[in-house]
Structure formats: structure tokens, C-alpha cells
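User: Show me a protein chain along with its predicted structure.
Assistant: Here is one chain, sequence first, then C-alpha cells.
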Amino acid sequence: MSEILPWLQEAIAHFYPASTYAASIDPAIRQRAATRLFLPPKAGAQVICPHCGASHAAPTGLDELLHFVCAHCGNSVQVAPPKIQ
């Protein structure tokens, strides 16, 4: 829990540096946020084949799952990119 607030403050200062809240954050946090890399989540979630309902686990290490061939039914499945909030 103690790591959540500093991360959120850095994210706000990084993505919304001109906001009123970012201006109220400690200058050290704002400085750290300016150089921090915020990456989208890695693939690894389970994707369900729309043709047969079989699950497909994305191999670890992939940045994004775009397309796969279902091991159960053999159909090609295109995966929509995840929405980053």
C-alpha cells in the first residue's frame, strides 16, 4: 500500500505536469517523474479464441500479443491491442 501513492503521484506528474495537483507534489517527486519510464503492461493475460472458446496464454516476454493461431481449432485470431488508461 505504501508504494501506491508515490507511484500515482509520479504518474500524475509525468502525464499531467501542468495540472494543479502535479504542481502541489513535492519537487523531488516531480523531478523523478520527469525521467521515469511508464510502460504499458506486458502481455501474459489469457486470450479466448472467439471461434471455439479455447484459451490461449500469451508466452511470457512478449510486449504485445497481436495475432495467434488457436492450438485447439486452428483458426487465425487477431487480438485487439489493450487499452492503456
